[in-house]
Design brief:
The protein is of the alpha+beta class. Helix content is 27%, strand content 32%. It has a five-stranded mixed sheet with strand order 2-3-4-5-6. Strands 1-7 form a two-stranded antiparallel sheet. Strand 5, helix 3 and strand 6 form a beta-alpha-beta unit.
Length: 165
């Protein structure tokens, strides 16, 4: 089992701390739900800081590869994870005050026991494509019989033959 890092987010940002590491994809259960398999490792860095207006933030960087499922052919699809985001730390009143203001940067609730891996997992899930697909024409035939597969994709081919006779 991988040791999960926890941080006091405000103290972490106030002191400009940084944490880096690697996490096996198998240790991210919500991410596993959308992946084809659990192989691979993701490298991450979380750095805290203070902006010019006195607000605290966390910079998150995640790099690695994972294997998604193509929505066209249902086979595996390699996906490069390259994530860089900044999250402002706010108290509950600050989050409630934001409302639906879309000009603001992403914000999270400041926490004395912030689970770093949960935060990384959430950011990765938000960055994934909604319906991952291979490039057009790159899908592998799922049933091995190319002609039967193509006929399934073209249901009006029979009507076209009747029209031409």
């Amino acid at each position: 089992m991988y040791a999960r890092p926890f941080i006091d987010s405000l103290d972490f940002a106030r002191n400009g701390q940084k944490i880096s590491g690697e996490v096996p994809i198998a240790e991210l259960p919500r991410l596993l739900d959308v992946l084809e398999d659990s192989r691979g490792v993701l490298s991450y860095t979380v750095r805290g800081g203070l902006d010019n207006l006195g607000g605290y933030w966390l910079d998150i960087s995640v790099v690695g590869r994972c294997r998604l499922r193509c929505q066209r052919c249902l086979n595996g699809l390699d996906h490069a994870v390259q994530l860089d985001s900044r999250l402002l730390l706010r108290d509950q009143a600050g989050l409630d005050e934001l409302g639906n203001d879309e000009d603001e940067l992403d914000s999270i609730l400041a926490d004395t026991q912030l689970d770093v891996l949960d935060l990384l997992e959430e950011e990765i899930l938000l960055s994934l494509p909604i319906a991952p697909k291979h490039e057009l024409g790159a899908c592998q035939v799922a049933d091995g019989d190319g002609d039967a597969y193509n006929k399934k994709l073209q249901p009006f081919a029979v009507l076209a033959k009747l029209k031409s006779s």
